[in-house]
Amino acid sequence: MTTIRQRRVGKGTEAAEDQPSEETNVKPDGKILPDPPGGKLWSILSVTVGGIVAISLGLLTSVYVATLHENDLWFSNIKEVEREISFRTECGLYYSYYKQMIEAASIQQGLHGLVYDNKTESVRTINILERMNVYQEVFLSILYRILPIQQYLEPVYFYIYTLFGLQAVYVIALYVTSWLLSGTWLSGLLAACWYITNRVDTTRVEFTIPLRENWALPFFAVQIAAITYLLRAHLQPAQERLTLLAVFIATFLFSLTWQFNQFMMLIQALALFILDCLDMLPTAKVTWLYIIQISGLLLVCVLQFFNSMILGSLLISFNVSVLIAKTIQTNLKKGGLLNRLGKLILHVLLVLCLTLLINKFIKKILNLESDEHIFKFLKAKFGFGATRDFDANLYLCEEAFGLLPLNTFSRLSSTLLFYVYGFVLVLLTVAAVIVAFRNLSGSNQVHLKDRMEEYTVTLKPEAAYSLVHTVLFGCLALSTMRMKYLWTSHMCVFASFGLCSAEVWKLLLKCLHLYTSQRTQVIKYSIPIITLLYISFKFWPGIMDELSELREFYDPDTVELMNWIKSNTPNTAVFAGSMQLLAGVKLCTGRTLTNHPHYEDKDLRERTKQIYQIYARRAPGEVHGILRSFGADYVILEDSICYERRHSRGCRLRDLLDVANGHIMDGLGENEPDLKPSLYPRFCEEIKKNLPSYTMHFTRVFQNKTFHVYKLAKHK
After folding, report:
1. What parts of the sequence cross the membrane (predicted)?
2. Which of 2, 446, 544, 674 has a Cα-to-Cα distance from 24 of 20 to 30 A?
């Protein structure tokens, strides 16, 4: 337990929170005292009201994002091809497997088509269930086929409503986590309101529906809620076992639905490791959480046909290393301050070395190189040498993988979220440092004294975990904008918990010598209510305006392209082009692709780099040979890539290809001294001139303002 406890001078207990305080209901021997009849009735009433509010807010959030999606696209009125085009880039690829399962003659045939897929990557047969996290699409398609809803609900609506429904689970999980941390459902209400009013920075589900994170993050939130409950003191054995089961199920579902699960759980494991080293969490529970992470990931590995990228993950290597190190260093938490610090340093070094050795050994045995692009990206991002690696630069030049923009903080501050978050973070960080020093020094108490009172600074295990969790995921979000959604949602939980927590206000008031029990109770309820009123009055009109704003999907060039492909090319035709566009080609037309946006495969990354030579300075014969080697019958060129202006010089796709090929870049500016001019003009520009050297290999068969489609000659 961690709280700020004043030494009593006289009799009396502090007022309970919505749920009776643990300390007032626990005997010195650890047994739970029964609640008085009135207190039990109040507790039941509070839980009932809080539960109804949680469910209501979750459902309202689902309706809210569904309405925004409908209003933005007029989804109910547009054609099927337009609906499918609205699933941009990798979203379209994932949804295509749901569509494929729905349209299959039987469930067995649909599964066979996924396990032996030869349309996602030409001239290759791949196992989609092994390569990608699409079990959710498989499950949903089977559910749609067996339920008697086909005549009432179109498959696309069943899919998107499921995702919007998961937003209800997400909000309820955030609500419950905040409630568990603070002891009052008012905290959960504030967390949910902050999540909704900061929607731009907390979710993007309404415009990237099939994205893996929109499936996974609700389960991650449920897992965090279960861990928060697990770390509470005085749980009964049955409660603890059920909570561990809930953690396992949530961990498994999170891991099954997102390919980046291992990296998120590695950060979570680091949080557990830090707190365990500082003796701020129960060691037995931490060990169980390590085991649950490993077992959940291994179960996913089995379902994904022993995906080698999972077996070679740093998470498994790290958790195994920690468990081995714990076995070797049994007296880690004994001794004085210097003794403990020395042991901790050795422990950290041992875990680090074991992790690297185990991971290197596994990757060597499995010949694993699928995740090397991630480490190249991280190395270049954090300044460990410049790189000309095409894959790493492709990530580095995307805004989503850049630093978190500063305007994010101004938006979060407009709802008071960031101000409150910073206030709570500073207070709890100070408390955590004091508690950590006390634990490492081996003393029983660290006292803060004045002439009138003396008290001990403490921190509950669940609050300590929430603190380190938010700090680590905050660092991730600051370094990589795409990962901000993991931080901002928990920011809502952490800030609301601090604002509604008696412990936090007690700490502040005692530091200011203003503490009384009555004052603490007044502040912990009045300030959250004032904050809720401020948010309601300021943002309710904006939300209503947003819900009344009607727009419509409009992309006639892409619609024309997809309709032309379906009408004028054989079903067996193979298309080459950009990863983003080809995902839509597969979804809308069912044609075979040369490459696609799911980038977690070394051969596919090399294939994509080769296909993208259509935007480089290469000879027409070379480009034709490359495309035909992957079985391409048609190639789609996009003016938005060939004449790109969205990125600055050095980050345009054509610049990345030029540098990777050793050629100088277009336009004014510096070039590295060893880069040389190409002997050939840019392919995507020169092919439009219909010169004989190009027309002998390529025949233009379609064009509009955005796209140019060429059919490849089949030379013997």
Report:
1. 41-66, 179-197, 217-235, 242-260, 266-284, 296-324, 344-362, 416-437, 457-478, 485-505, 525-543
2. 446
